[in-house]
Amino acid sequence: MTRRPTLLFWAAFCVVLALLIVAPFALPEFWRRFLTEILIWGLLAMSSDILIGYTGMVSFGHSAFFGLGMYGAAAALLTTRPPSLWLALLYGLIAAAAVAAFVAYFSTRLRDIYFAITTLIFSQIFYVIIFTWTEVTGGENGLNFSRPALAIPGLFSLPFTTLTLYWFVLAVVTASYLVLRRVTRSPFGMVLQSIRENEARTRAIGYPVERYKIVAVMFSGLFAGLAGVLYAIQNRFAAPDFVFFVVSGETVIYNIMGGIGTLVGPIVGAAAFLLLREGLSRLFPYLAAVASQNGLALPGLAEFPYLIPLGVIFIAMVIFMPQGLLGFARRRLNE
Amino acid sequence: MLEQILIQTINGIVVGMILALVASGLTLIFGIMDVVNFAHGELFMLGAYVGVVTLAGTGSFWLALLVATMVVALLGAAIHVTTLRPLLGRDPLNTILATFGVSLVLQNYALWQFGPVARKIQEPLTGQFALFYLDYPWYRIMIALLSAAIIGALWLFLKYSTYGVWIRATTQDRLMAQAMGIPVPRLLTLVFAIGAGMAAASGVLFGPLVGVNHAMGLDWVLKAFIVVVVGGMGNLGGSIAASIFISLTESYASLWVSPSQAIIVSFVVLILTLLIRPTGLFVPTPK
Q1: CATH of domain A31-333
Q2: Do the Cβ atoms of B214 and B202 come closer than 8 Å?
Q3: Tens digits of per-residue pLDDT, A48-66?
């Protein structure tokens, strides 16, 4: 641990943060919202990196924590008048933490693939409950609500615009990053990493491995819930689709694409994935338009499912680039 | 009430046999290859679609069953060679990710090619017999018997054929099998193809009972995973027992709650299994 790389890290951190703060001024409305979404999905992916990258447990159930954060926020925003941002955060985090405690207690008894499958099944349980319990959760249609104002009672109250919401999300994600980074470098985080490296030896030294794992899952779930609350506030709805396990799969994809065990990697992965998806979804209609201008009729090209090339790119990355986009900088980022 | 319970018992066994067909492919792939195949449900779904297309072209259900099995088995071999063989020797978790990508591709391909409207497969056997107050279709009974026959054939194949012996040897000790001259990479491709073919066959068989659509694989892959864990990973007999056990509990549960909630019962079975016997309910206690 020399002094220079740490300095380099913080310099890079400040530059990136400054760029992100001023970025919306250069972007039109659509891309401001898009950037906000990237940050929220990035936070979700970052929260699961604690498990995947640092503890060596691949969770396929993060959609449950994310979704419960959403529904928790929905509960606060629908039942309290006037809707309060802070209550939404509180309810969302409590809901996510409760679910995370429940899932953690059972799933941490298992390792490797069994852990992955158990978390997957748990998230499906919550999906089925939310999907079928129509009176409370709105069932398939989900819940709609209005966006709360950014307010401190007695001091000020600002309605959210796209711009202020972006900054708010950026602030939350940056703070979460700093907390998570601090935690991974704390003695607690060191124990997690030693579980990843050699679980039996960690236990032999005398650490209560199960307890550490439970806390790690809860901690990770809490931040996933935070991402869920932010997403609910951004989109003003909660829907069962976000509890479905495909969301968990995408979370793992962000991690792999960006590089696990780096914390920022997952955010970069989310950005790469979402930008690629957006780009590909525009590419095929564009190609079809170009082709028809040149007298070529290619039926079906405009509707070509852009998720197919995305899936192929992902498979290729798993095979050829298991370190992810930021894998090369892994040591630097953890110094 | 008693009649309802009996009807649900028959229903449970019929669904359980199809589930066993799906899950035995999955458990074969996991037990032998250490591959967690997330794309299994999509192979099931593609099998059903190939069945739909062949049936529309030829009008023969049996030909559709055969063609679907063959086509999807070949597709499975191609998937294995291109995406899973390069991952040999890496952490099995990589296979989850790669097959997740495969399922993304296959599902979106099906959506693009066949559209979101569910298709129907006409059953080859339309007769019914009286079961208490119901007319129970013979076709359902036939599915259960056919599934049992396919699984039985798989068992005979594993037990007596040269390839079957090789496959069992590879399960026990892959390195030693390779040292003895067994062509392990080719064998793994074969296993994946067999698993894919079985998934496709169950897709065609199950097609007449529900509509065929691009998302039909999702439910099945989840159920099959539950079965594989409850039965003990890589344990063929255990998977079959667990399939029937889980389908029966779900059938009985659907006497009281709606079928979409009945799946929670199988989730609970899974959680209890993991707590009490994480190696699986239907395997002998490891000594």
Answers
A1: 1.10.3470
A2: no
A3: 988 888 888 888 888 999 9
